[in-house]
Structure formats: structure tokens, C-alpha cells
User: Fold this.
Amino acid sequence: MTVGPRAEALGTRLTACGANWHANVPDEFDATVQVRYNHRGAPARVRVTGAGRFAVEFAEGVHAITPGQAAVAYDGDRLLGGGWIE
Assistant:
């Protein structure tokens, strides 16, 4: 069953809460952001927006950004941190 074209499921931004940073990160930085367990990650700009919160703007559309899933930021293989997609 198809409820719409695949392109309709692409998103370019998300907000997240419950952030847990494993590195000292600046207020704004570039990273590879993974939006679910089996997602390869995509280039993005991450902006810390407050205590435990951040926003992500992807360079290109990402399929199925889903509330409740984890958004995890990496610098290469180095884990920077992450939170829960709102």
C-alpha cells in the first residue's frame, strides 16, 4: 500500500530534546547526523538551542525523520552526542 510518493517523506530539519553530549561542542557545528539505528547518517549543521535541546538542518533531504527516534551526531567515527527527535 502506498499512501504518498517517497519524496513526501523527505525532511531537511529536526529538533531534539534530552541531549546528552559526549564531547564539548560549540553552539553551532557541522556533523554527520544519524536519525535511526540503520541510517548511515547525513551531513548537517547542528545548533544547540538550550539546555538539553538542539536543532539540525540537513544539507539534503533525509527520509523518514520520525519523532521518538534518536538523532545522533558524529564527527567521523567520533560520537559527539545526541537526543530524541521531537
Q: What stands out?
A: The two ends are 27 Å apart (CA to CA). Residues 9-85 form a domain with the Elongation Factor Tu (Ef-tu); domain 3 fold (CATH 2.40.30.10). The mean pLDDT is 93.
